[in-house]
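Hi Y.,

Following your request, here is the sequence exactly as I used it, all 103 residues.
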Amino acid sequence: MNEDVINKLPGDLREVAEIVGVDNALALVERFGGTYIRVPKCEGLLRDIRDNSIRALYDSGKHDIRALALKYRLTDRTISEILKKTNVAVPQPLLDLFATHLK
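Below is the corresponding structure, written out as tokens. Let me know if you'd prefer a different format.
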């Protein structure tokens, strides 16, 4: 039944329903129908999470710069630059939400 409903939805709403489910898509329509919603990219947040992971691994003494560069597919210089930066505070709920993207 949900597939029948999804196929009847117009354009972008169909794509949203395929990702979040019909009920959630319809809830979005109820709340935001007729307006435009900007969905920001999370590149900056994901980069901060990655950088904090690099810092933690380096500080643990278990990984040197070269090992981190290989692990994260970055250059030695990029790892060094990340390590020079101050840790970026990322709220725990956001860390949990995006942790799967870094594995």
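The mean pLDDT is 85.

Thanks again,
Q.
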